[in-house]
Structures are given as C-alpha cells and as structure tokens.
Amino acid sequence: MAGSANLNVMLRAARKAGRALAKDFREVENLQVSMKGAGDFVSRADIAAEQIIKSELMNARPTYGWLAEEGGEEEGKDPTRRWIVDPLDGTTNFLHGLAHWAVSIALEHKGQIVAGVVYDASKDEAFFAEKGEGAWMNESRLRVSGRDKMIEALFATGLPFGGRSDLPETLQDLARLMPTCSGVRRFGSAALDMAYVAAGRYDGFWERRLNAWDMAAGIIILREAGALVEPLSEGGDILADGEVICANEAIFDKFAKVIRNT
Hints:
Mean pLDDT: 93
Number of domains: 2
Radius of gyration: 17 Å
Number of helices: 8
CATH topology of the largest domain: Fructose-1,6-Bisphosphatase, Chain A, domain 1
Oligomer: single chain
CATH architecture of the largest domain: 2-Layer Sandwich
Distance between the termini: 41 Å
Strand order of the largest sheet: 4-3-5-6-7-8-9-10
C-alpha cells in the first residue's frame, strides 16, 4: 500500500526505533534498568527508542505537538496536530526476554486519531492504518474475524499488577466472561492486543487504566479493519478515560454486555 507522506514518516520512524530495540533485546541481560514505579520499568533502550522516533517525526513535521510515555507532552506551533508515541509497549516482556513488544505511533488531528502504526520488530510485523484507507499488516489487508458465537471467541486483556486497585474489577470481568468463551489471553502489550483484534487473531479486547499512547494507534487500526471500538463506560472518552473495549461487529454487543455487566 502506498500511504501518505505522514504515514511513510511514521513507518520509517517505527522501523528505525524497532531495529535499535531489537539489537538491545538480544543483549537484554546487560541493559541498565531503573525502577520508574511499581511494576513499571524503564530501560536505556526505551528512552533511546523514543529519541529516535522524536528525531524522525519532528524533523519531518517540526510544527506538530508531541505526547509520549517518557518525554511527556509538548505543544506544537500547529495546535491541531500531535504525535502520540509509545516507544516500547510491553517493556516488562522486553526486559524478561519475551519477544512480544512493539513500537506504537499515532497522529492526532483536531482531537481525532487519523493514522497509526504498531510495529512488532521481533516478528517484523507492521500494523498500520489511515482514516478512510483501510488497515494493513505489511502488504496484507487486515480484517477483523467473522466469528459470531461467544463460545468460539478468543479475547485478550491486561491483568492489573503491582497492587493496582482495579484487580478485583478485572477478576469479576473474567469470572463473567470465561464461562462464555473459548479463552482469554494476557500477553502484556495493549498495542499488539488491539492490532491482533484488527488482524482477526483475537475476537475482542478490553482493558482499564491505559494511557493514550498505549491505545491511540490501535484505535485507528481497529476501526479501519472493521472493529467496533468504544469506551468501557458508555458515553465516555477512550483516550481521556484510559478504558477501551473492542470487537468485531457480530460479537461486540454480547461481549460488551458481559464486560459492562448490563
């Protein structure tokens, strides 16, 4: 697919950062790691990847704003556009030598996500989309699964760690959902979970207490692949609330009813 100039810049930045991360991943035991918070690690590789992405994106579009996990928020001269970046989603997997992590880059225009890239460097899988142009994984068009029976559906989520207060709520979700479906996976990267729903590998995903950079790219990839994507609380705001639920259209209402307990 021949994307826009912005999308090509995003893909180039994601792949460049991904190559640097992959090199560090092969030497993961030697990484200098510091504790950023309970269960939330940041490594030298993480910060270096963000610097690579920022250099690529801001050199190409110096007037755009910036929001990223490590570098925080910067307002651009163009107040209508900003990059939303997670240089390494799945840091804990990365630090434990588990090859399931990704670079996530989104472009926001006037409050709407209009382009997104999730790059899994370990598998060289680039999931990407632009508004109105469909969703892709490398050269293949993405489409959500066609499953319409809950008992056949496979779902994904994140499980709270480090004493987080939302653990009881998530356990209640699982108690309601697991008897109705074929399984639930917890792989440790929300960006890839959302991309996998878009690719039909999962049938749905939900999670609470996420950050904008965890979800932004996934939202546009999902929607362009035909998924329904909503805040967990009806009438809420996905990025502001940090909560999301998504699935193919055939199963969404049944899935959402179980998770929302309505």
